[in-house]
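Fig. S4 source data, part A: sequence.
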Amino acid sequence: QGCEHGCIYCYARPTHEYLGWSAGLDFESRILVKERAPELLRRALSSPRWRPRVVAIGAVTDPYQPIEGRLRLTRRCLEVFVEFRNPVGVVTKSGLVLRDLDLLGELARFDAATVTVSITSLDPDLARILEPRAATPERRLACVRGLAEAGIPVGVLVAPVIPALNDHEIPSLVEAAAEAGAQSVGHVMLRLPHGVAGLFEAWLDRYLPERKQKILNRIRSMRGGRLNDSRFHTRHLGGGFFAEQTHRLFEIAQRRAGLDGQRFTPSTAAFRRPAPPQLSLF
């Protein structure tokens, strides 16, 4: 919980507010980890009550943020998934994912792994202020290429699409992702829940004051006059003219790039529950 990447738009920031900390610097500097996660995961998969299904890794905060280089919790969890051949879907914006090509590749042998690389912009200057401690756009495309070359199904997620800021990059982002070997390219529209709205407005005041009102007005036009819409089926898509225009632009860009819009779904067919080690008689 918490993420060192410091992406200003991160929808997970408010989770720290539930702990009495701030969605700002506390979220970026007070990182909580579950040290026994691999052991607890093995216990869960070993249970007769477990039914094999795809497990998402990194759906909230990045599983390959810098602290993973020291703790190796994600890698140790992947070792457990390999042991059971339980399928996983990883989402990251870190180059550290390439460290685990061996484990992801082993799962991919059984159609049990997919990786999605999040890329918000190809502009290194914009990425530097949006996502100050995340991998550069060039590094992320290199991750897509490395994963694809290793035979691991990989997609790109343009997240978030920020109207009047990075939406003009959609055609070039989709083209670059396809050229790097991505099998699919998805997108998520920006939403600003709870304390994230104030942080994002302060960020606009600091870096893009002349564009602040245009960006905020576009967001409101997609969110029913608000900066956030928490409804499950609409929060990632938005609504209204600009949202629909963005969706159509993605469809056109995908067709031009030769992508059919279908995402790879990992299979549970190879799941196994290894026999417990035999106890010694002595």
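Fig. S4 source data, part B ends here. Residues 241-256 form the longest helix (16 residues).
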